[in-house]
Write a structure and sequence with these properties.
- The chain has 177 residues and is of the alpha/beta class.
- It has one domain: Rossmann fold.
- The chain is built from five helices and six strands, in the order αβαββαβαββα.
- The protein has a six-stranded parallel beta sheet, sandwiched between helices.
- α4 links the parallel β4 and β5.
- It is globular and about 55 Å long.
- The termini are far apart.
């Protein structure tokens, strides 16, 4: 038991080091425009209605499988049945790795837009965000501003406002028509 606690503390320390190194890397600008695939990292402890992100597909006039959502829960809920795959704190590995098959598959493809839909400053959420390859990153004001290119100041539970603001700014940036 003591060994497990010490091991977990070292995993967290190595993950913080990995995150710090990733945030120092320079972002590569790209000339590509347009949104055809969206990844969403959602804190399911604070926002339980993660299925609502599928509305973005209709709002932005995207293909049926263009929006991919992965959640984070502090602990696994054995009673709940979730249609959205999620990661827990226990799946933190060495050097910032995330030992979850669903997440590995999720992070294995590139996206045009990453939505970091969380306000809590949690290590796993930040790690998930840095491991996803996305051209444009969007998040909420209370989260770490180093992770996002575009930050919205709205309540976590006010998805309608977030969706309207996202569409407005994507039009301004000429990412959607």
């Amino acid at each position: 038991m003591i060994f497990r606690t010490i091991q977990d503390k070292f995993k967290v320390k190595s993950a913080h080091k990995f995150l710090e190194d990733e945030l120092k890397k320079a972002k590569r600008p790209t000339d590509k425009k347009g949104i055809s695939s969206i990844a969403c990292v959602v804190d399911m402890d604070a926002f339980s209605n993660a299925e609502v992100f599928q509305e973005l597909r209709k709002s932005l006039d995207l293909k049926p499988n263009a929006v991919h959502v992965i959640g984070f829960k502090k602990t696994a809920d054995k009673n709940g049945m979730f249609s959205i795959p999620f990661v827990t704190d226990k799946e933190l590995g060495w050097n910032g790795s995330i030992e979850n098959g669903d997440f590995s598959e999720f992070a294995g493809r590139p996206y045009d837009l990453l939505i970091n839909y969380y306000t809590d400053n949690r290590l796993m959420l930040k790690l998930m965000s840095t491991k996803i390859d996305a051209r444009l990153r969007v998040g909420l004001e209370a989260a770490d501003s180093n992770l996002n290119d575009l930050i919205f100041s709205c309540n976590l539970n006010d998805f309608t406002t977030f969706q309207a603001e996202l569409k407005k700014y994507l039009k301004i940036l000429k990412e959607v028509a």
